[in-house]
């Protein structure tokens, strides 16, 4: 068996992408659609999602947008019902929405701490809770089922001012390993991708000016990954034969040292 992918390896798949209004999520939604999947795009900014869906449908793809704040557990559960109604139950979940608000610990930016924990931990768990029944049902039917969580190299690196963000991503990486034990037995593939620096809107939300300058410098100094690099990676993981699970994948810009 070779891994040379067919032109539309995701034909018939139903994908959910969170954090789809920009950056890695948006690029991945476009790519999954181009490879044949129907796509439900989730984030808060409705206009951006609607414009993405318009692009996908004008390229003969099938997509729906569901504006949801994933920190709202009930709203995410409702979104899962909407996906099932519009496209059918999901068999590919790119659990990607996240925020990075780096700052020195002694600045006590506790609101930023909380926002990161609410989205990067609780939001990710809400998506798992809402869509896991879709994935296990798909696997029981004999279909390929994927849960792909976005972690970060920050999960394992010691990066100054990244403490809370890194903590949330360490949670995601280890959670992924642990639930893979249970879900792999049920033929649901579980993956974590750990990117290095990707040129997206992510640093724009940082409220600490020093940390913001640090991020801008890093972005300026090297050729970062592009969102399309991540999209290609997620598509590759999802398009592999059903018995192959890339469980953890680190992807770095070539010139990023750590
Ligand atoms: P972006 O800021 O471009 O994307 C973040 C996405 O999350 C947006 O679509 C945003 O949409 C969405 N989002 C934010 N808050 C919520 C919420 N409460 N509910 C639903 N959606 C929400 O950054 P990236 O594409 O870079 O980030 C994607 C993921 O990649 C994150 O998990 C990030 O931590 C991770 N990552 C990024 C790296 C990088 O260098 N860029 C490196 C490693 C990991 P909206 O505002 O419309 O809700």
Explain what this protein looks like in three dimensions:
The structure is a single chain. This protein has 258 residues and is of the alpha/beta class. 46% of the residues lie in helices and 15% in strands. It has a single domain, classed as NAD(P)-binding Rossmann-like Domain (Rossmann fold), CATH 3.40.50.720. A seven-stranded parallel beta sheet has the order 3-2-1-4-5-6-7, sandwiched between helices. The mean pLDDT is 95. The structure holds NADPH dihydro-nicotinamide-adenine-dinucleotide phosphate. NADPH dihydro-nicotinamide-adenine-dinucleotide phosphate binds next to helix 1 and helix 4. NADPH dihydro-nicotinamide-adenine-dinucleotide phosphate binds at residues 18-25, 43-45, 69-71, 96-100, 119, 123, 150, 152, 195, 197-198, 200-202.
Primary descriptors:
SDR_fam; 258 residues; oxidoreductase activity, acting on the CH-OH group of donors, NAD or NADP as acceptor; Sc_DH/Rdtase_CS; binds NADPH dihydro-nicotinamide-adenine-dinucleotide phosphate; NAD(P)-bd_dom_sf; Rossmann fold; oxidoreductase; seven-stranded parallel beta sheet; 15% strand
């Amino acid at each position: 068996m070779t891994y040379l992918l067919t032109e539309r390896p995701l034909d018939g798949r139903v994908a959910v992408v969170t954090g789809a209004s920009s950056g890695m999520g948006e690029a991945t939604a476009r790519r999954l659609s181009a490879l044949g999947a129907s796509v439900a795009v989730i984030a808060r900014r409705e206009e951006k999602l609607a414009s993405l869906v318009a692009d996908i449908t004008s390229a003969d793809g099938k997509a729906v947008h569901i504006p949801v704040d994933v920190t709202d557990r009930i709203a995410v559960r409702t979104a899962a019902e909407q996906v099932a109604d519009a496209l059918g139950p999901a068999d590919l979940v790119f659990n990607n929405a996240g925020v990075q608000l780096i700052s020195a610990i002694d600045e006590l930016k506790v609101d930023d701490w909380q926002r990161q924990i609410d989205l990067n931990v609780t939001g990710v768990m809400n998506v798992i809770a809402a869509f896991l029944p879709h994935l296990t049902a798909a696997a029981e039917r004999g279909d390929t089922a994927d849960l792909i969580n976005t972690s970060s190299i920050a999960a394992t690196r010691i990066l100054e001012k990244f403490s809370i963000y890194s903590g949330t991503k360490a949670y995601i990486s280890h959670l992924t390993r642990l639930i893979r034990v249970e879900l792999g037995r049920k033929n649901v593939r579980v993956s974590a991708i750990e990117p290095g620096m990707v040129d997206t809107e992510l640093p724009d939300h940082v409220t600490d000016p020093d940390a913001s300058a640090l991020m801008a410098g890093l972005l300026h100094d090297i050729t970062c990954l592009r969102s399309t690099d991540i999209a290609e990676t997620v598509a590759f993981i999802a398009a592999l034969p059903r018995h192959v699970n890339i469980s953890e994948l680190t992807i770095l810009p070539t010139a990023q040292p750590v």
